[in-house]
Design brief:
Blueprint (H helix, E strand, L loop, with lengths): L2 H6 L1 H5 L2 E5 L2 H11 L4 E4 L6 E8 L2 E7 L4 E4 L6 E9 L2 E5 L2 E5 L3 E5 L5 E5 L4 E8 H12 L12 E3 L3 H15 L10 H18 L5 H24 L7 H7 L4 H12 L3 H19 L6 H7 L5 H12 L3 H5 L2
Antiparallel strand pairs: 1-3, 2-5, 3-4, 4-11, 5-10, 6-9, 6-11, 7-8, 7-10, 9-12
Helix pairs in contact: 4-6, 5-6, 7-8, 7-9
Keywords: DNA-binding, Transcription, Transcription regulation
GO molecular function: DNA-binding transcription factor activity; sequence-specific DNA binding
Pfam family, one: HTH_18
Length: about 325
C-alpha cells in the first residue's frame, strides 16, 4: 500500500459510523445488514467493532473492524463484487479453491459466485469496496461485444505494490477526494465514468475467466477498426451508413461501435463526420479563386450548410468562408 493512501481515507474515517459496538451480537447483525448475512465465530481478543461507510454512485466504500479475531463464513456474495485489504493486522481469505494471505500489500478480490471464508487477526481493520455484480458483467459484455455465458470470476489475489495496484489506489483516492470538502458533490456523469473506469481496470488488469478472450477480442477489434477506417477513407464522398461500415469491418454494429469508442473516443458515424470535415478543411485551404463553400460542403457530404458552418467554426475557430478567403 502506498504511504499516501491511508491518509486519503480520512473522509471515510470521518464519516459517522453505521455502528460502533463492543457487543458481539450487535456487531454481527449490523455487519450483516450492510453487507451480507453470515456465520461469525469470535476467537481471541476483545470485541471493539465499528463500520464506517461512504456511497458514491453505485460504489460502496467501508472501513470495518471487529477488534477480536474472527472467523467469517458468508458463502457466496451473489449480488456484488468485493475488494478488501487490511489497513491494520492481517487476514486469511479463502475464495473458492484459492487462499489469499492478505496484509497491507496484498488485498483480495472476491467474486460473487465463489464461496468465501475469512479469518481476521486480532485488531484487523479492513478497507472494503463493493460493486454491483450486474455492473461488472455488463462492462465485461461491452468489452467483449457479446453476451456472457458464465459469471465473471477473478483471480482473488490482488497485489498493491505493482503498477496496476498503485493505479487502483489512485482511482479509489480520486473517489474519496470529493468527500474532503463539506457539501461537495461530483457531477453525476463523472461518477458513472469513474465507476466504469474502476470496473474496467479490474477486467483489463486483474486475471479472470474471460481474460484470454478479451485479449483475443481486443486484437480482433483493432483489426476490425482498421478495416472499417480503410473502407471509410475509400468511400468518404459516398453515402455511408453504420451497417455498411460494420460489414466492411467484419464486425457487428454493436462490436464496432464499442471498438471505435475505445480506440477513437467516438462512434463510427462521428468519425466519418470528422474525416469529412478534415477533408473539407484541406480543400478550403487549397481552393482556387471562385470556389464556393457550398460546393465543397456538398462534395464531402454536408447537405445542411448552416450546420456545416457551425461545426466547422467550433472545430477550427473560424468560418469556412474566412478559411476560403485567406
Amino acid at each position: 500500500m502506498e504511504p499516501w493512501f491511508r491518509g486519503g481515507l480520512a473522509p471515510l474515517y470521518d464519516a459517522p459510523p453505521l455502528f460502533a459496538s463492543r457487543d458481539p451480537q450487535e456487531a454481527k447483525l449490523a455487519t450483516a445488514g450492510a453487507l451480507k448475512e453470515h456465520d461469525l465465530v469470535w476467537r481471541s481478543g476483545k470485541v471493539d467493532s465499528f463500520l464506517r461507510h461512504l456511497q458514491l454512485g453505485e460504489v460502496s466504500l467501508f472501513v470495518l473492524r471487529y477488534g477480536a479475531a474472527v472467523h467469517i463464513a458468508p458463502g457466496e456474495l451473489r449480488h456484488f463484487l468485493l475488494f478488501q485489504v487490511p489497513l491494520e493486522g492481517s487476514a486469511r481469505i479463502a475464495v473458492g479453491d484459492s487462499v489469499v494471505s492478505a496484509d497491507s500489500r496484498t488485498g483480495a478480490l472476491i467474486s460473487p459466485t465463489l464461496p468465501l471464508r475469512l479469518d481476521w487477526s486480532e485488531g484487523c481493520e479492513q478497507l472494503l469496496l463493493k460493486v454491483p455484480r450486474e455492473r461488472v458483467e455488463a462492462s465485461c459484455s461491452t468489452l467483449l461485444g457479446a453476451q456472457l455465458d458464465q459469471p465473471v470470476e477473478f483471480c482473488p489475489q490482488f497485489a498493491l505494490d505493482t503498477p496496476q495496484g498503485r493505479s487502483w489506489q489512485h482511482q479509489i483516492g480520486a473517489l474519496l477526494s470529493w468527500f474532503q470538502a463539506p457539501g461537495a458533490a461530483p457531477p453525476s456523469k463523472w461518477v458513472k465514468a469513474q465507476e466504469e473506469t474502476l470496473i474496467q481496470h479490474l477486467l483489463l488488469c486483474q486475471r479472470h475467466n474471460y481474460s484470454e478472450l478479451l485479449q483475443r477480442r481486443s486484437g480482433a477489434a483493432r483489426r476490425n477498426v482498421r478495416m472499417a477506417e480503410e473502407y471509410i477513407r475509400e468511400h468518404l464522398q459516398e453515402a455511408l451508413d453504420l451497417a455498411g461500415i460494420a460489414q466492411a469491418g467484419g464486425s457487428s454494429v454493436r462490436s464496432l461501435c464499442a471498438a471505435f469508442k475505445e480506440q477513437h473516443g467516438v462512434s463510427p458515424m462521428v468519425y466519418v463526420r470528422e474525416q469529412r470535415m478534415a477533408q473539407a478543411h484541406a480543400e478550403l485551404l487549397a481552393a482556387a479563386p471562385g470556389t464556393r463553400v457550398t460546393d465543397i460542403a456538398l462534395r464531402w457530404g454536408f447537405t445542411h450548410l448552416g450546420r456545416f458552418c457551425t461545426r466547422y467554426r467550433q472545430r477550427y475557430g473560424r468560418t469556412p468562408l474566412q478559411t476560403l478567403q485567406r
